[in-house]
Queue: 3 jobs
Job 1
Amino acid sequence: MDHDLNRLRRAAAADPADAALAARLDRALLRGGAQAEVMKRYHSAYVRPVGFDELAGPDPLERRCGCGRGVRYQPSAAQALATLARGECAAVAREALPQLLVAMAASGQLSSHTGPRRACLRASELPYVDLLTREVPFEVIDLLPANFATTYRALPVERRGRRVLVALAKQSPTVLEDLGFMLDLEFEQVLADPTTVDALIEAYYPAGFGEDLAEMICTA
Ligand SMILES: [Zn+2]
């Protein structure tokens, strides 16, 4: 058994782009209880050194991967696995990586080969917030004036002392710094579905309310 395993290891090392060979080695390692070695193989085949948060892109959950494709953030390991199985690049929270690598190895849909066009996996350090189930208190909403929320498409979701966690509907390299400078608080980004962020901004900050109020005060 060990002899066979070593022969497979050598063959896979000699031809790391051979997907069928890699899949055979992955299965043999899992059968032999060498789970840590399988995780390591999947990690080096899929996980890219540059994290999701460092990438630019059109919206907070969809960035340009660097491999020529897009990479989309997946809130769960199951969704990330399905994305990778379709051959698309995926990102997950860094703490979800170990669980995902186990699922990838066990799925039988992927293998740890390093052939061309294999999907990428990128880790994110930012927390993900499901805004459909999370209630945002009004005193947190009030931390951002309406014109700031609508201009920057930013929704505050939680306050921790001087730090305010904010969800963005549109990714911008300077928005956190700009808000921090103008409002004298520290803004930190959380990831959330941009469509929901926009809908909640519209719901929480009625259009024109600030301006009407200013006009009323001025003409009173
Ligand atoms: Zn990629």
Note: Residues 216-220 have pLDDT under 50 and may be disordered.
Job 2
Amino acid sequence: MISNERRLRFVYPRFSRHADVHPELREHVPCNEYFGGPSLGIAYVAAMTPPEWTIEFRDDRVDDVGLDDPPDVVGISCFTPSGKRAMELADAFRARGSKVVMGGIFPTMRPDECAAHCDAVVEGEAELLWPRVLSDAAESRLAPRYRATENIDPAKLPLPRVDLYVSRENDRYCPDDYPVQLSRGCMLKCSACAIPGVLGRSLRPLPVEHGLAQIEQLERHGKLACLTEDTSFFPGSAQQRAFGELLDRIAERGTKMSISYVGISMPLVLAQSPAFFARLRRAGVSMFYLVGGFDPITRGAFTGTDPKSRQRAIDALRRCMDEGVEPYTSFLVGNDDDDEGTFDRMLEVADAVKLKKAEFAIRTPYPGTPDFTMMRESGRLLHEDWSRYNDANVVFQPTKMSPARLERGYVELWRDFYRSRRSLAAESHRERTIQF
Ligand code: B12
Ligand code: SF4
């Protein structure tokens, strides 16, 4: 029975990150560990919650999730790295009488698996479904599955309730920034990406006003915005025009910095015009979160057999520097054409351009992606322990080296890259903060 009080608690389950899996990174890397907020999933779903519900939020990475005080309904949001922990928490809350609803990337991709641990799974974009899920819960008639069959009109999206996230900050956990999304879904099918399967196969830009309102909301909390999706940059598209307009609106408001970094891929850096970089600078953007080795073009850059791609990677990095935007680069290792020489080739490129900060990630075939299907069908998955699907473990059989060699190469990349960058330790808090 749901109480008259109608207590709803959102839970963001914990997961292991690079340095949790490889604690030696804390010695090798002379930087602060960036400990970002949760994905915007809970913040958006919370904003669609009818007013008769009292909303609580617990971040399992930093909070007690409150098993001793079970609410009427628990809404758990997870992606693959936190999927296993999410199912454990779902079991624990159900055993204490709460109704448990799971949503997010992992439940969308593995609904049957999650359904065995909760009362209802919400698949896909949840905004339009959520009020019905809650009224069904209140009337004790929750269906086991809810699947999004239509996407919300971006013009009707409410502002995400990031106040819930900020409310859990403390001395140990206080992100400088929170994510801001400027689009939903994607029409491309990059082999390692789960987004088209979760948020839809059309790229839907959010109104410029909505992006700006998210940034201003964060400013009111004293926070910066990280714009993490490169889909805003698709050349010539409505997205790029909207993104340019957003930059201009930010610039018009004065000189205060409001964006910590902007996510982009190497090919998209090369596709931008000088005028676009000027707009970025006017809006105070001084850092990119640049992904290398993920997209089809730079995937060849470190294989030793594709000098054109290598040169394009160098050009992309130099372009950022020349245009005054620091490329904080995330290198992916473990692509099928990577061999034991890939690690050194990456370091050579990083050193050739005098790259200041980088992170390294192991290719991970996340469920629901074309990569996962290919690996599973060809018998290359080593296991399906989702807690180890987090870019810091090798969960598949590489083609040109052993799993152990790939993992060692990844740890050595962190060590060797930062060996010659110890002076970062003396830089400002912002300059020496990275994700690991
Ligand atoms: C922002 C972001 C980051 C930022 C900031 C992290 C942060 N503070 O969120 C940075 C760059 C630091 C980052 C890091 C990582 N990320 Co990230 N990140 C994203 C990104 C671009 C946006 C997340 C977001 O806010 N989405 C918007 C919300 C609205 O979408 P959503 O969560 O899916 O929510 C909707 C539905 O799923 C559902 N829903 C969600 N929760 C719930 C809960 C309930 C109860 C219900 C009913 C419904 C529901 O409704 C929501 C609204 O429609 C996504 C890609 C993407 N576009 O989603 C990748 C993504 C989530 N990241 C990913 C990964 C792997 C990571 C890392 C683990 C990589 C690594 N090892 O370094 C780290 C983890 C570090 C961390 N989080 O601390 C992968 C996840 C892969 C997977 N299949 O699980 C993604 C999908 C990228 C990709 N293209 O593959 N990330
Ligand atoms: S990686 Fe980016 S471009 Fe590729 S499918 Fe995902 S969201 Fe689209």
Note: The chain has two domains: 7-17+38-147, 168-434.
Job 3
Amino acid sequence: MSNQQLSSRSTCAQALEAFGSALPLTSSRVLVTGATAGIGIDTAAALAAAGAAVTFTARSDASAAAALEQITAIATQLQATVPKLVALAPHSPLKIDHVVLDLGSLASVKAGVEAFTSKHPEPLDILINNAGVFGMPHTLSKDGYEMHFAVNHLGHFLLTSLLLPAVLASKHKRIVNLSSVSHTTPSTLNFDDLLKRERSYLALHAYGNSKLCNVYHANELHRRFHDAQGLSTVSVHPGDMISTSISRQRLLWRFVFFLASPFTKSVTQGASTTVVAALASESVIPSSSYLIDCKVTPTSAAARLQEPAVRLWDLSVELVKQYLTPEALALVSN
Ligand SMILES: NC(=O)c1ccc[n+]([C@@H]2O[C@H](COP(=O)([O-])OP(=O)(O)OC[C@H]3O[C@@H](n4cnc5c(N)ncnc54)[C@H](OP(=O)(O)O)[C@@H]3O)[C@@H](O)[C@H]2O)c1
């Protein structure tokens, strides 16, 4: 298995070909958040094509139905064209389903995880925290937290904590957090204004902060559960200004992303780094790595600090603890 032949323009097909020795994933279960648009669709399709049983999250059954069509079409195409997958034919039917949850509501995350675990009580090999919002006007979530922090970090923190027992019981034990190069913009996390960000709100700062939280979350999961329990975590920057739905919040962002689109990665090129993060063995991608263009890259200096990562972890546990199961609470409180 190698990522050396992969580059910024590698697609999911090339990532699957490069990591062919990890395939098929026929006994693996994967959960991808936010696969109703953008990078999540291609990520879910690639892993389903590789044989995994894939569950994706959606905010409604209607958006899930539309996404399922797209994911199925892309996965079928990959199975017919990627040589390592063609060699595995005949393929068993694709195993893709969805669970409805809204990461901006802690109660909804808990209900969604309960629905997922009652349907799939088996171990969860790969959790991909992909869903995200960008550039939103100042908005508070159902629980009263600034929306970038709520969706990009806190909802995923609760989801991950609830699913941690299932991930730790699995063979692969991998958690991938979609961060961004925007994690480098804050020089520090401002804990005084982290939850509501009411003082001089700037959407890009709120996004950058939430993406720094994603790296801290992955690093702290690694510190707590790697040596003791074999968990491996990877943070990912998929690429710059990829034309997905991420720019939907403002006409200005849509225009800027449109102008940049001839020079940016396609969606499958963006998703390839996530596919590598999900499939690579630890000898290729060490746990707690940060990937850009399918390769290990240093994070910002701020993201390497342990003190804010621990402080964020403790704060997040406090904010979600009423939604945790006793088993999850015991794990994340240690
Ligand atoms: N595109 C880029 O250039 C870029 C660059 C760096 C990092 N990233 C990161 O990559 C990840 C994927 O981004 P993308 O570009 O694929 O974005 P996208 O096309 O907007 O897709 C985002 C996904 O997240 C879901 N989502 C949004 N709010 C949610 C909520 N409250 N609860 C549950 N799901 C929610 C969306 O569901 P709905 O369809 O229901 O809204 C959608 O499925 C994000 O974490 C983003 O920060 C993207």
Note: The chain is about 45% helix and 10% strand.
